[in-house]
Every structure is written in structure tokens, then in C-alpha cells.
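User: Um, any thoughts?
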Amino acid sequence: MAGALKSAVESDSGLPVSASAHNNARAEVRLAALRERIDRINDRLLALLTERARLALEIGHLKRANGTGVYQPLREQQIIEGLLQRNPGPLTADHIRRIFTEIISACRALERELRVAFLGPEYSYTHLAAMGRFGSSAQFVPADSIAGVFAAIDAGQADLGVVPVENSTEGSVTLTLDLLIDTPLQIVGELMLPVRHALLSLSGERGAIRKIIAHQQALGQCRNYLAANFPHCEQEAVASNSLAARMAAADPAAAAIASARAAQPYGLRVVADGIQDVAQNITRFLVIGREGVARSGADKTTLIFAVPEKVGALKEALTIFARNSINLSMIQSRPQRSRPWEYVFIVDLNGHRDDPPMRRALATLKRKALFLKVLGSYPEGRPPAD
């Protein structure tokens, strides 16, 4: 009887009912007070965002009067970097970057909507990289090929473009390099995106898969996984991984390699996630446009040149950069399509073309090279944090 009485007057927590109810009531009062404070903060945030938007509109009028472009990567980078340095937490650097990228994107759109071409369809890795840089208030223009991104800018259908250029495991995207050589467009920025591949299909059942569809680089990045888990499946290379997702959505026997974020928009299920062979799989993307960008203080210059066919000619060219204390971070060769078995060299250098040491080096190289073209000077992209 005593035990029954005790259980009747105690809550599940072991406290008397009156004490438990009192604690619950105190928690509810505290919760209501905190929510009221958040509501007041939200009102202050809205007022500050409204003031910021009005200032952005005024800046937009001044830019138009001065003929200045709406996209100012140096200024946007300075804003984000300054906020990251002053961030006291508990929001992480990634939180701050994403929040203020969207704020900047919305305010920029009030000045003028920025049109950004990308290798599509939507939810390709290029699309995800572009959204991460320009925010969701930009107008994103899908292209069905890398050449289509260049063509969209050239035709005035887009202000900027985002194209893949290099993967940490599969190497260079040669078509991007060839188009940079052949067109007047310039590199104005770079992005680094961690690539986490997922296998997507309509049913999500492994046993139903007869064909794997993906971009050639994605197939290469997952070759060991595919060999171990789907050795008898046909593989089909297509222009982008989001196109692969679209094709898999129309074929119950097919699976696509793409971002897991592409599953829901295309009505697919995740068969497996994180299927890339190398965990630290990062793709480098370039932002391309018609106009160059100013120095940021942490820049990279990409150029292409050819040297005479003689012993020591390449070494002599590279020594020019060493003499001017310019670090060379990447070099690769590409065949000259008009002259078989002869090559041009593409290099990445630390510094901006307007820096005095770089100007001296380029002037000297121009005198010695058969051909020289600066593909762009732009703020150096930062690798993603671990």
C-alpha cells in the first residue's frame, strides 16, 4: 500500500508530483523569456539588415555612375575574412561564412542580379561550388558543357562562370585549360570544394543496378569502390554528375554518382554515401569573367607560355621567377594542337600581375618566350578546413 501511494505521488523522474510540476513551470517560464529575447534580437537584426540593404542600394548607384562592376571579390573577401577574425563563437567559421555569403548575395542582388553560368544541370558539384561562393540570390545559368559556360559569358547571357579545373586525385580538367588558352576570358577567382560522392538510384536497392553513370572524373575517383562492389556493371561517362542523376531518374536499372544533395531533387534514393576512394577528395574550380580583378594582397597568377626548342630553355624561363622571389606553385605542360610534339607550359605563381616583382618577371619572360599569355590574377582560394 505504501509503495502504491508513493508511486501515485511521484512522477516518472522520481520527484514528487508537486516538485516536478514546479520545475516544469519554471522551465516553461525560462523558455518563454529566452524566446522573447530572441524575438527582440530578430527585430534588431531585421532593422540592421534593412539599413545594410539601403546602403548597398546607395553603393549600387555610385557603382553605376562610376562604371564599376557589381561583383567586387576583393571587398567581399575582406568582409568575410574580417568577420572570421573577430568571430567570438559559438558559431563556427563555416557558419559565419555561409550566413554572410547569403547576406552579401541578397544585398548584391538589390544592386543588380549577378548571372553566373555553371556546368549543370542543377546540383552538380559546380553548381554547389557556385552557390557557396555567390549565395542563393544570384541567378544561376546552367550550361550543358564546360564550353557552354564560356559561350554563355561570351554571348552576354552570364556575367561570370564557374568551371572545374583540377581534382586532387584525378588531376587537371584539360578542356578548361584549353578553353582558357583559346578565349579572351580571364580567371577572376578560384574555389575549393570537398567532393563526397554518393551512389543514387530510383529504388535504392543494390541488386537492381546494372549500369553506373557519372562524369569521367567521378568514375575515376570511385574506381576501387566500383570494382569491389559493382564489378559487372556497365559504366557510362557523361558531361556532369547531375546529368547522370537526371538519367538515373529515368532508368530503374541505372545508378548515378553524384552529391547526396542531388537525390531529393531528382527523386532518387541514396544507395551508398562517401564512395570516393580517397577521403580528402577536393576539386578546384575557377571563376571566369571578362574583366580582371584588383590586387587583394594574397593573390595567384596563372599564365601560359612556350619556349624555344633548345636545351635549358624551360629552366632559363623558370629561373626568371626565382630571381624575382616569386614562388611557383604548379606547372604542367599541354600539347600545342597546331604543332604536334611541341608543348606550352601552364604555371600558377604566388602574386598579382600588378605586383612590381611580377611585372618585372613577365616583361623578362615575354622577351625570351615564343608565346606568353596571362590567364588571370585573382584572390587565392583557401582549401576547406578539415
Notes: The mean pLDDT is 88. The CA atoms of residues 121 and 243 lie 6 Å apart. The two ends are 61 Å apart (CA to CA).
